[in-house]
UniProtKB/TrEMBL annotation:
Organism: Micromonospora craniellae
Keyword Methyltransferase attached: no
GO molecular function, one term: DNA binding
Keyword match Transcription regulation: yes
Name the UniProt record assigns to this protein: FadR family transcriptional regulator
InterPro entries recorded: GntR_C, TF_FadR/GntR_C, Tscrpt_reg_HTH_GntR, WH-like_DNA-bd_sf, WH_DNA-bd_sf
Domain HTH gntR-type: 13-81
Domain of life: Bacteria
Alphabetical UniProt keywords: DNA-binding, Transcription, Transcription regulation
Amino acid sequence: MPPAVDSTVPPRGRRTNETITRLRRRIMAGEWPVGSRIPTEPQLVEDLGVGRNTVREAVRALAHAGVLECRQGSGTYVLSTDELAPVVARRLTDDRMTEVIEVRRAFEVEAARLAARRRTAEDLAALDAALAAREAAWHGGAVAEFVEADVALHTAVVAAAHNGMLAELYASVATALHSTVAQAMGDTLTPDRHVDHGRLVAAIRAGDPDLAAREAGAFLESAPKA
């Protein structure tokens, strides 16, 4: 008679998938920020309560997805909180910038529309702060700082839409978003490249979805602009 199978112990494949999910959730929650080193394999074995091979397979899968990077003699580091981000980054080339702008438009127009309907007092405060930081960065004249501030404002609009899936998808194109803004700005901040986002924030505050959508799409209509 064959030995009895303990049904409380999941098959190896399922254990690995569950371990991948648990690691991914902790990375997305910020327990191990991007750039930081995750615990060693023995530490993960003890922490997760699974075998060494299961941990090894889970880490290898996340490394293949571009979330983790195994560095010989140093450890395993977090590359991204999102498996889509490395994929998008690898596909990002100068000759695809038009596609990136179109994707931005699809996300940002709908995000503005939803934000106008769903924004809270906290969202409006965050938008005001992001808009002020963007203007301050513009007047400061540093391109890199302005790019970061501009992206932060667009991200705040998406957050105000209160759609978790939209926010995750938007985060996955963060590298592409930075690239389009940087490309639009060039090496210096000149008056002809400035785009007023005050009207966009005002439309969201007024609760006007159609106006907010128009404002969000206007600066992405043709040429790359921030």
